[in-house]
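User: My instructor asked us to take a sequence, write out its structure as tokens, and then describe one feature of it. I'm not sure where to start. Here is the sequence I was given:
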Amino acid sequence: MTPNPATQEPIGLLAGWGRFPVLFAEKAKTMGIPVVCMGFRGMADRDQLAPLVHRFHWTRLGSLNWMIRGMRNAGVRRWTMAGKVFKLNMYKPWKFLTLLPDLRLIRTWWFNKRRDNCDDTIILSLINEFARDGLTCTSALDLCPELLVQAGVLTKRKPTASEEQDIAFGWNLAKEMGRLDIGQSVMVSDRAVLAVEAIEGTDIAIQRAGDLCRRSGFTVVKVAKPQQDMRFDVPTIGTSTIETMKKAGARVLAIEANKTILLDAEKTIALANRHGITIKAI
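Assistant: Let's start with the prediction itself. The structure tokens for your sequence are:
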């Protein structure tokens, strides 16, 4: 019997850039769960999302009250987030004028005491603000657990002995960077660090490593934070990651099994095989 969306409780979705929000919306639709989607302007793909969701609304990063009110008015009690949010926009000149924050975001930003402005701290403060209005944040992976990668070498090419050493070397460093809430990826070669991901994101960090390591053949290690909250900022790879690695000259991608999202798995692995890139989930 096909589920009736009219009888299912809707779920809210804050959608950023990339395939993850689309895959979430597709899965929800097959399960008959109506999705009330708030897509961030300049990031979310409305053309792909709108046909899949019950309601689609554009929003801005600064429109906190609009997001909360829109979900409540649609009968949402549970919500989730998926897709990349480009945080560099927050560090442009006159950032608050660019974000056009509403009064609720201003109050949350200025009057809630925070120990720092790292990713986890900011997102958890926003989750708490949603919770004040009875909106509970859940993990998108509760609906799409199949997106989490399983352990093993996923590609035809296996790591060489020296690449295994680079993986082991980079793994501990990446975990420490994650513990400090700096980033989730490090790029290494010959057990030396080429680049560390910070606010720019993995792809730009890979590009920077490629600029510094002109001989190519380096290793990318991307892991979950030791304190990873699976509701947000879960490590994610896909075809764009492989394309970036190819252009930069990276040869190996090591990721954490059961805590990394692999988007469009067949396409991503096929593309890696085509470019001679190794993917190993540990």
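For the description part of your assignment, you could build on this observation: Residues 272 and 278 are 7 Å apart (CA to CA). Try explaining in your own words what that tells you about the chain.
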